[in-house]
Design goal:
With 481 residues, this protein is an alpha/beta fold. Helix 13 links the parallel strand 18 and strand 19. Helix 2 (62-78) packs antiparallel against helix 4 (95-116). The protein has helices spanning 40-58, 62-78, 80-91, 95-116, 154-165, 179-191, 206-215, 228-240, 263-275, 292-307, 327-342, 394-402, 417-426, 465-468, and strands spanning 3-4, 8-9, 12-13, 19-24, 27-36, 121-125, 132-139, 142-146, 169-173, 199-201, 221-225, 244-248, 253-257, 285-291, 346-349, 365-370, 385-391, 409-413, 431-434, 454-455, 469-476. The chain folds into two domains: 3-249 and 443-474, Aldehyde Dehydrogenase, Chain A, domain 1 (3-Layer(aba) Sandwich); 253-434, Aldehyde Dehydrogenase, Chain A, domain 2. It has a seven-stranded mixed sheet with strand order 15-16-17-14-13-18-19, sandwiched between helices. The protein has a six-stranded mixed sheet with strand order 10-9-8-11-12-20, with helices on both faces. The protein is built from 14 helices and 21 strands. The protein is globular.
């Protein structure tokens, strides 16, 4: 049965009002639910609710905040199979990956439950006699959270959990494609013991809800993950409002494969990075930079691996590559493949696939014979598409890898420790992988990039406190006893 999703404001689930259908990309005849679209007035009600709840929530003990997150983690873990099924059905991610993503959300909640108890601070003597200095961390206040559809429970969790852990209140705007996962996560956290108004959920478009959050003077911090164009607009709007802002905006991630690489390992790392999650992740390996001596064998092996990947319904356990998320994304993927061919690349794969159900199925594509100036190597496609760039040696590979406006993730496959160490230092990216896919990161370490990929402090791990809390320095003169 279809579900009518509702906003959550001040602890109350609102009237869904006029709603748009949420359709399964694996089966266009399957409507999962209906999501409302908030107007600006509704957004401001949610912001006011968060602002009103901020003083009491920020005054709770670290243990109380940890207990809420730990309780939520336990429920997410206990419902992992159920929630994984909804995620696969709603977003199109193959069931094994979808279930693993739910597990990651549970890990994130548990980790940040611990972080709530590890806030810490410093007590240091002043240079002035008799005075001490206390350095503490305090909540920022009201945090706006804007998330994409490609990781519909993991990304919201790694933003909402640290915000709550450090005593902030939240207004959450999820992607329009994945309202069901957002509703489930918020419901779990709300029932775990959050006071009314500490976490508010508002569905709607970026043009209305996102803009209202970015421009609101009562939002103290705004964290965003999404496309470059939208992200730059959000940063500009938030900056104009004087709001602390953090933005993750995609990548055009290089994977360098040197002549001395383990060929099987390199093929598997590139296939995983390029095509798993239907290539719909900002850390995907979209530029495969391969040295001349191994190029032909690598391409032959990757094509064989690619052709063996079953494209199909996300709930089919045999599926390796699920559907593209919607018609607009499918058309974008195909447009980039046409442009690549027009610019001289050879496109292998990348055709629509028919299955028992109507869906947005696209076979993985590899574009060979490209150079780094082509659009396919400059712009983020966000689909099951990778291109190969042949280079002479490591020095040229490093130059090409860094010749991009992005800087999220970069990888290298090599048997040389010297090359690996040099690449980890010289690659202009926030994350570097050696003999591993560019996609796939741990939840307890920093996540984020540089250049056009990221703006503001890193996400995840203990480094998340740099965004979700601010440092206060207090000078104390006890006076005469």
């Amino acid at each position: 049965m279809s579900t009518h999703y509702r906003h959550l404001i001040r602890g109350r689930w609102g009237d869904p009002g006029e709603a748009t259908p949420n359709v399964n990309p694996s089966d266009l005849d399957d409507t999962i639910g209906y999501a409302p679209a908030a107007d600006e007035e509704t957004v401001q009600e949610a912001v006011a609710a968060a602002a009103d709840a901020a003083p009491s929530w920020s005054a709770t003990t670290p243990e109380a905040r940890a207990d809420v997150l730990d309780s939520a983690a336990a429920e997410v873990r206990s419902r992992q199979a159920e929630l994984g099924g909804l995620l696969a059905r709603e977003e199109g991610k193959p069931i094994a990956e979808a279930t693993a993503e739910v597990g990651r959300a549970a890990h994130l909640l548990r980790f940040f439950a611990g972080e709530a108890l590890r806030v810490g601070g410093d007590l240091v003597p002043s240079v002035r006699s008799g005075m001490t200095v206390e350095v503490t961390r305090e909540p920022v206040g009201v945090v706006g959270v804007i998330t994409p559809w490609n990781f519909p429970i993991a990304i919201p969790t790694w933003k909402i959990a640290p915000a709550l852990a450090w005593g902030n209140t939240v207004v959450f705007k999820p992607a329009e494609n994945t309202p069901g996962m957002a509703g489930e996560l918020v419901d779990i956290l709300h029932r775990a013991g959050l006071p009314d108004g500490a976490l508010n959920l508002v569905y709607g478009t970026g043009a209305v809800v996102g803009r209202a959050l970015a421009e609101s003077p009562r939002v103290d911090a705004l964290t965003f993950t999404g496309s470059v164009g939208v992200g730059r607009g959000v940063v500009a709007q938030a900056a104009a409002a004087g709001t602390r802002v953090q933005a993750e905006m995609g990548g055009k991630n290089p994977m360098v494969v040197l002549d001395d690489a383990d060929l099987d390992l390199a093929i598997e790392a590139c296939a995983n990075g390029a095509y798993f999650s239907t290539g719909q992740r900002c850390t995907a390996s979209s530029r495969l930079i391969v040295t001349r001596g191994i190029h032909d064998r690598f391409v032959e092996g990757l094509l064989a691996r690619m052709r063996g990947m079953r494209v199909g319904h996300a709930l089919d356990p045999r599926t390796v590559v699920g559907p593209v998320v919607d018609a607009r994304q499918l058309e974008q993927d195909e447009r980039y493949l046409r442009v690549a061919a027009e610019e001289g690349g050879e496109v292998i794969g990348g055709h629509r696939v028919e299955r028992d159900t109507r869906g947005y199925f696209l076979s993985p594509a590899l574009v060979v014979g490209t150079d780094n100036a082509m659009r396919i190597n400059r712009e983020e496609v966000f689909g099951p598409v990778a291109s190969v760039i042949e280079v002479a040696d490591y020095d040229e590979a490093l130059h090409v890898a860094n010749d991009t406006d992005f800087g999220l993730s970069a990888g290298i496959c090599t048997g040389s420790l010297a090359a690996a160490k040099d690449f980890t230092r010289a690659a202009r990216a926030g994350m570097v992988m050696v003999n591993a896919p560019t996609a796939g990161v741990d939840y307890h370490v920093p996540f984020g990039g540089m250049k056009g990929s990221s703006y503001g402090p890193k996400e995840q791990g203990s480094h998340a406190r740099e965004f979700f809390s601010f440092v206060k320095t207090a000078y104390v003169n006890p006076g005469r006893p």
